[in-house]
């Protein structure tokens, strides 16, 4: 990316780097490196304070149009921001779902009233969001959603259960895919509702994961209410909008994610040097392949984003999810193989995991959440390559 940067891009990179270096100090110096997958429990109030500090300085939603509180940054500058943020080891974002998923969806499909109501609190990090997609019987098969909503005189009433809802316990709002047409099936009859979380009728229950943490939750809606106007798009158009949201999820923030992947890979290589595992030709080959895979991942992400710089992402974004999910899961396995038998022993009582053990355990989920590998392959085959649809009884 740097080889093709314009003078304006280089100046932007310097501005971002200098601001982060200056402000990740003092009260926020200890926030470096906190949070992330499997560690979202770490210092949440401090990370929230940091992100509000960023907002006050105009460093949230940098790619959004200026009229909606962003900086109108180009695609290249958005990549630069996310890369520099990761390189600075800044804390994991608490507003990722609002800024990178819901916000772009509202920009693309929302009404003027919805933009005025929901975008400013996202920019200011005053309202946090979670995603109400998966259900016990509709995880990878999202079209099997059974949560339903009925429109009455007092607005929509939502009833059902969602699961694997990241950061629901901290969230103020949830965008919920639910069935609003009785008797409908599969992709038909779904709608995309914006539902307040802090009300009677919403019950959030944390799920303890293999890592011992609980960033995922299950959420129960029992006639939870939201205004009639809090539907994005038309009733029954929820599937199209939900798929666009997933495409936004695989946008420029993934470039920052890959900086973190590179740091992890460098750590595994250094671990292999210390343990002598680097002398094993098979492990050395796997480390080399991991480095090559990371380079391919970056180039593919840049190519995909350049192709969808205007408008909502298409099904091609599934390629990125398939690639990075598989790569990161394999890195977790590689880290454990480099550790050897020592990786089987916890660092302390009762369940004190090391960084590589946590990476291995959490990365098992990478090929499942946000769309499983099997589903991504189907999307690529049917909607990108135009192959015949999978037979369904």
From TrEMBL:
- The protein depicted here goes by the name Putative acyl-CoA dehydrogenase FadE17
- Judged by the first EC level, this protein's enzyme class is oxidoreductase
Q: Which residues form the Acyl-CoA dehydrogenase/oxidase C-terminal domain?
A: 236-385
Keyword Cytoplasm part of the UniProt annotation: no
Q: What cofactor does this protein call for?
A: FAD
Question: Might you give the EC number(s) for this enzyme?
Answer: 1.3.99.-
UniProt xrefs under InterPro entries? Acyl-CoA_Oxase/DH_mid-dom, Acyl-CoA_Oxase/DH_mid-dom_sf, AcylCo_DH-like_C, AcylCo_DH/oxidase_C, AcylCoA_DH/ox_N, AcylCoA_DH/ox_N_sf, AcylCoA_DH/oxidase_NM_dom_sf, Mycobact_Acyl-CoA_DH
Q: Name one GO cellular component term.
A: plasma membrane
What species is given as this protein's source? Actinomadura macrotermitis
GO molecular function per UniProt = flavin adenine dinucleotide binding; oxidoreductase activity, acting on the CH-CH group of donors
Annotated Acyl-CoA dehydrogenase/oxidase N-terminal domain ranges read 6-124
- A Pfam family that the UniProt record links to this protein: Acyl-CoA_dh_1
Family, per entry: Belongs to the acyl-CoA dehydrogenase family.
Enumerate the spans annotated as Acyl-CoA oxidase/dehydrogenase middle domain.
130-223
Keywords annotated in UniProt? FAD, Flavoprotein, Oxidoreductase
């Amino acid at each position: 990316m740097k080889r093709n940067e314009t003078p304006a891009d280089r100046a932007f990179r310097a501005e971002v780097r200098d601001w982060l270096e200056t402000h990740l100090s003092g009260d926020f110096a200890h926030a470096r490196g906190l949070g992330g997958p499997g560690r979202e429990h770490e210092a949440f109030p401090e990370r929230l304070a940091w992100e509000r500090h960023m907002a006050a300085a105009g460093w949230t939603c940098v790619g959004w149009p200026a009229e909606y509180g962003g900086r109108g940054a180009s695609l290249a500058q958005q990549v630069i921001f996310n890369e520099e943020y990761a390189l600075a080891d800044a804390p994991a974002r608490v507003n990722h779902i609002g800024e990178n998923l819901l916000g772009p969806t509202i920009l693309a499909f929302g009404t003027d009233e919805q933009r005025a109501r929901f975008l400013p609190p996202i920019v200011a990090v005053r309202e946090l969001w979670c995603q109400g997609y998966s259900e016990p019987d509709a995880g990878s098969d999202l079209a099997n959603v059974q949560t339903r909503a009925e429109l009455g005189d007092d607005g929509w009433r939502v009833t059902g259960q969602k699961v694997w809802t990241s950061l629901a316990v901290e969230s103020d709002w949830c965008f919920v895919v639910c069935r609003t047409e009785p008797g409908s099936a599969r992709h038909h009859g779904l709608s995309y509702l914006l539902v307040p979380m802090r009300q009677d009728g919403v019950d959030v229950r944390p799920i303890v994961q293999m890592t011992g943490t609980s960033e995922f939750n299950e959420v129960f809606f029992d006639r939870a209410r939201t205004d009639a106007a809090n539907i994005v798009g038309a009733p029954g158009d929820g599937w199209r909008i939900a798929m666009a949201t997933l495409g936004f999820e695989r946008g420029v923030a993934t470039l920052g994610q890959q900086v973190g992947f590179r740091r992890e890979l460098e750590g595994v290589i250094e671990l292999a040097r210390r343990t002598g595992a680097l002398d094993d030709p098979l492990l050395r080959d796997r480390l080399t392949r991991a480095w090559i895979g990371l380079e391919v991942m970056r180039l593919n992400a840049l190519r995909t984003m350049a192709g969808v710089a205007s408008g909502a992402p298409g099904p091609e974004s599934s390629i990125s999810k398939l690639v990075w999910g598989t790569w990161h899961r394999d890195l977790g396995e590689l880290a454990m193989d480099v550790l050897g038998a020592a990786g089987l022993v916890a660092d302390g009582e009762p369940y004190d995991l090391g960084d590589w053990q946590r990476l291995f355990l959490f990365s098992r989920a990478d090929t499942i959440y946000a769309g499983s590998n099997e589903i991504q392959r189907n999307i690529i085959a049917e909607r990108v390559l135009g192959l015949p649809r999978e037979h369904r009884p």
